[in-house]
From TrEMBL:
Domain NAD-dependent epimerase/dehydratase: 3-229
Lineage of the organism: Bacteria, Pseudomonadati, Thermodesulfobacteriota, Candidatus Desulfofervidia, Candidatus Desulfofervidales
Keyword check for NADP: yes
The protein's name: ADP-L-glycero-D-manno-heptose-6-epimerase
Superkingdom of source: Bacteria
InterPro entries in the record: Epimerase_deHydtase, Heptose_epim, NAD(P)-bd_dom_sf
GO function terms (MF aspect): ADP-glyceromanno-heptose 6-epimerase activity; NADP binding
Keywords: Carbohydrate metabolism, Isomerase, NADP
GO biological process: carbohydrate metabolic process
Length: 303
């Protein structure tokens, strides 16, 4: 198989590109390196095209067998609405139109940000209440995808990612997962800092499950947009308990005020019923085992 992975120097894109290559696929990474990092692709043996999804000549990808569209501005603190919409929506529309025109299977990254502050478990039909421009851009992409699904037989699958964590996210800085940020604090023997009182719940899904979902999507029974998460809601207090166990530390959390009241998701939890029906997805990693695997991969604990 020959696959195109847009955003392939980013966190999820790089994990996906490298996994595809290890499985024998010929992979082309498309990334403008505005937020991705070359270090994520160290060891990658296939091709990299360093251009923007808004401008690249798509005809050069006319012979690919699948497109995995991960490219986007993912920093939810970006306030430039025009930039966010041009990259996330118009870039998406351009590549989707190309894929449909040539009948190329199109698997793309949506987001749980489309749900906004609706309490979990979140079902796909509950989306449409974003609280920031990032979530709004992803919601519009979903709406565009739905229109195309109604008028084409070409495969289109949207994967609504929840809170993804795992190797190759370090370059994201403040946008990296709470698991990564708290692990770094605790590795430095600092008390982990979380918002009062640590009982906010998030669906934390390991990146290896997300990659698996992308591969399953190629065999989807029908087109659709589905949740990709762990199906469990994990409190920040539990994250710290698990990290203490895995890292061999005994650090108590430091609780701080939440400056994002009204714009903060207190409870995310993916309802996976539709994902199981359409792409046969079920998470393979339990949270503590995923954290152990992650900390081994980044060298925080010995194998």
């Amino acid at each position: 198989m020959k696959a195109l992975v847009t955003g392939g120097a980013g966190f999820i894109g790089a994990n996906l590109a490298i996994t595809l290559e290890r499985k024998g696929a010929k992979v082309i990474v498309l990334d403008d390196f505005s937020s991705g990092d070359y270090r994520n692709l160290v060891g990658f043996k296939s091709d990299v095209v360093a251009e923007s999804i808004k401008e690249v000549d798509l005809k050069r990808f006319k012979d690919v067998d699948a497109i995995f569209h991960q490219a986007a501005i993912t920093d939810t603190t970006v306030r430039d609405q025009k930039l966010m919409m041009q990259v996330n929506v118009e870039g998406f529309r351009r590549i989707l139109e190309f894929a449909v025109r040539l009948g190329i299977p199109f698997i793309y990254a949506s987001s749980a940000g489309t749900y906004g502050n609706i309490s979990g478990p979140q079902k796909e039909e509950m989306a449409g209440h974003p609280v920031n421009i990032y979530g709004f851009s992803k919601w519009i992409c979903d709406n565009i995808a739905k229109e195309y699904m109604q008028k084409t037989d070409s495969l289109i699958i949207g994967l609504r990612y929840f809170n993804v964590f795992g190797p190759r996210e370090a370059h994201k800085g403040k946008m990296a997962s709470m698991i990564w940020q708290l692990a770094n604090q605790m590795k430095a023997r600092q008390r982990p800092r979380i918002f009062k009182w640590g009982e906010q719940k998030r669906d934390q899904v390991y990146v290896k499950d997300v990659v698996h979902a992308n591969l399953l999507a190629l065999k989807a029974k029908r087109n659709g947009i589905v949740n990709i998460g762990s199906g469990q809601a994990t409190t920040f207090n539990k994250i710290i308990r698990v990290l203490n166990k895995v890292l061999g530390t005994k650090l108590e959390p430091e609780y701080i005020d939440n400056p994002y009241v009204g714009f903060y998701q207190d409870h995310t939890q993916a309802d996976l019923t539709l994902a199981q029906q359409i792409i046969n997805y079920s998470p393979q990693w339990e949270f503590e085992e995923a954290v152990k695997d992650y900390m081994k991969e980044v060298g925080f604990v010995e194998n």
